[in-house]
Write a structure and sequence with these properties.
Elements lengths: L4 H27 L1 H8 L5 H17 L1 H15 L1 H21 L3 H4 L1 H32 L4 H29 L2 H26 L7 H6 L7 H8 L1 H23 L1 H7 L5 H16 L2 H11 L2 H22 L6 H25 L6 H31 L4 H19 L11
Length: 421
C-alpha cells in the first residue's frame, strides 16, 4: 500500500503533537502544584496541601499503564488513527475543565474529587497517546522509522521546554496573587487549546498501512496474544524503556532539587544548566534516529547505551567538582543520552509484530516509566540520605543504561516492511 509524502508528513507532525502535550502538562502541573494545592485542598498547612497536590499528580501518572492497555486493545483491533483522536479529545476535555473548574472555596470537596477524576482521565488518555503515536508514525514511515521516532521524542521534549516558558511568563507578568487566582489556569487553558487543535487536525490522519493490511486478522484480545507469543520481547522492552525512564527524571526533572538541596549550588546556574541540557538532549534525537535508518537500529542503540553506562558515574563525579563544571558536564551527558534514548523508542516499535505492536509498545513504555521513572528520584534521595553517597543518581543511571545495553544485545529486530517511499 503506497503512502504519499503528505500522509507521511501529517502522521509525523500530528502524531507528535500529543507527545509534546504530555510533557507540557507534566511540567505545568508540577510547576503550579503550590497554587493548585491552595485552590483545591482545604488544609492550612502548606506542606500538606503540596503533598495532596502531588498525590493527585501521582494518581494520574499511575493510571497510565491502564490507559495504555485500554487504548492499545482497541488500537490493535480497530486502528491507530481512531485511538489517537479519542486520546487527544479526552486530554483536551480534561485539561480545559481543570482550567475553568471552581476550587474548594466554591464547590467544597466536590472540587477536590473532580480534580482527581480529571487528572485520572488525563492519565488514561496519555497512557495511549505516545505509544499510539510511536506505532502510527513508524508504520507509516517504515524505512524512516528511526527518524520518525527521533522527531517524535524531540517534540516531546519541546513540550517540556514550552511549559517552562509558559510558567516563566506567567510568574513574571503577574503578581503572586494573580497567579494564585487565575494565572495557573492560563497554563492549562493553553494546553487545552493545543489539544483541541490536535483533535481537529487529526481528522486528516490516514490509517497505518501496516494495520490496514492485517485488520481482518486482528486478535480479539491483543494483550493475551502479546504475552502468549512475545513474552521475551516484553521483558527486553521493559529493560530498554528503563534507560529513558531513568535518564529523563534523573538528569532533568530531579536535577534542580538534587543540586540545590544536596550540593547547595546556585539555583539560577542550576536552572540554566538543566535548560541547556534539555535542549542538547532533544535536538540530536532525529539525527540519532536517522543514523539507525541507514546502519540498522541495534548497533547505534547498543553503542550509545553502553557509552551512557560507562559515562554516567564519571559525569556525576565531574559535576561534584563545582558549579563551574555543571554546564559542560550536563552538555556531555545530555549529548550521550540523546543518542542512547533517541534510538530506544524506535527499537521498541521494531521488536513487536504488527498485530500486537501498539499493545506491546504501550505496555512496556507505560510500565517502564511508571516504575523506573516514578521511583528513581525517590530511590536516589533515599540512598543519599542513608549512605551520604551523593553520586547515587549516577550509579542508578549507569545501572539502568547497563541493563538496557544487555537487553538491546539480546533483541531481535523485525525488518521494516516494504513500502513505496
Amino acid at each position: 500500500m503506497a503512502v504519499t509524502a503528505g500522509e507521511r508528513n501529517r502522521a509525523l507532525f500530528l502524531g507528535s503533537m500529543g507527545g509534546g502535550l504530555e510533557f507540557y502538562d507534566f511540567v505545568i502541573y508540577a510547576s503550579f502544584a503550590s497554587q493548585i494545592g491552595k485552590t483545591f485542598f482545604p488544609s492550612e498547612a502548606a506542606a500538606t496541601r503540596l503533598l495532596a497536590a502531588f498525590a493527585v499528580f501521582a494518581a494520574g501518572y499511575l493510571v497510565r499503564p491502564l490507559g495504555g492497555i485500554l487504548f492499545s486493545h482497541f488500537g490493535d483491533r480497530h486502528g491507530r488513527k481512531l485511538m489517537l483522536r479519542v486520546s487527544i479529545a479526552g486530554m483536551a476535555g480534561a485539561t480545559f475543565l481543570i482550567a475553568f473548574m471552581p476550587g474548594y472555596a466554591t464547590w467544597g470537596i466536590a472540587a477536590t474529587v473532580a480534580l482527581v477524576v480529571l487528572r485520572m482521565v488525563q492519565g488514561l488518555c496519555l497512557g495511549g497517546e505516545i505509544p499510539g503515536a510511536m506505532t502510527l508514525i513508524t508504520e507509516t514511515m517504515p524505512k524512516r522509522r528511526g527518524l520518525a521516532c527521533g522527531f517524535l521524542f524531540m517534540i516531546i521534549n519541546v513540550g517540556m521546554l514550552a511549559a517552562q516558558a509558559v510558567q516563566w511568563a506567567i510568574e513574571h507578568l503577574l503578581s503572586d496573587a494573580a497567579v494564585l487566582s487565575y494565572g495557573w489556569r492560563i497554563g492549562f487553558f493553553i494546553g487545552g487549546l493545543v489539544a483541541i487543535a490536535g483533535f481537529v487536525l487529526r481528522a486528516r490522519l490516514a490509517e497505518s498501512p501496516a494495520f490496514a493490511e492485517m485488520e481482518a486478522s486482528a486478535h480479539k484480545v491483543p494483550l493475551a496474544a502479546l504475552f502468549r507469543d512475545n513474552a521475551r520481547a516484553v521483558w527486553l522492552g521493559l529493560f530498554i524503556t528503563g534507560l529513558g525512564a531513568a535518564a529523563v527524571p534523573l538528569l532533568y526533572l530531579y536535577m534542580n532539587s538534587y543540586l540545590t538541596d544536596f550540593l547547595h549550588y546556585d539555583p539560577d546556574q542550576v536552572a540554566s544548566a538543566v535548560l541547556i541540557g534539555i535542549v542538547v538532549f532533544s535536538l540530536p534525537m532525529p539525527v540519532a534516529g536517522a543514523i539507525s535508518d541507514f546502519v540498522g537500529i541495534k548497533v547505534p542503540a547498543f553503542v550509545a547505551s553502553l557509552l551512557l553506562a560507562i559515562a554516567a558515574i564519571p559525569v556525576y563525579v565531574w559535576i561534584h567538582e563545582g558549579v563551574t563544571s555543571l554546564m559542560p558536564a550536563m552538555i556531555v551527558i545530555s549529548l550521550i543520552g540523546a543518542f542512547a534514548w533517541g534510538v530506544g523508542p524506535v527499537l521498541l516499535t521494531a521488536i513487536f509484530p504488527t498485530d500486537v505492536r501498539y499493545t506491546g509498545v504501550a505496555f512496556v513504555y507505560n510500565i517502564g516509566f511508571a516504575i523506573v521513572g516514578g521511583l528513581t528520584p525517590l530511590l536516589a534521595t533515599f540512598i543519599i540520605q542513608q549512605t551520604g553517597i551523593t553520586v547515587a543518581p549516577g550509579f542508578l543511571l549507569a545501572l539502568f543504561a547497563a541493563l538496557a545495553t544487555v537487553a538491546i544485545f539480546l533483541t531481535q529486530v523485525i525488518p521494516a516492511q516494504k513500502s513505496q517511499l
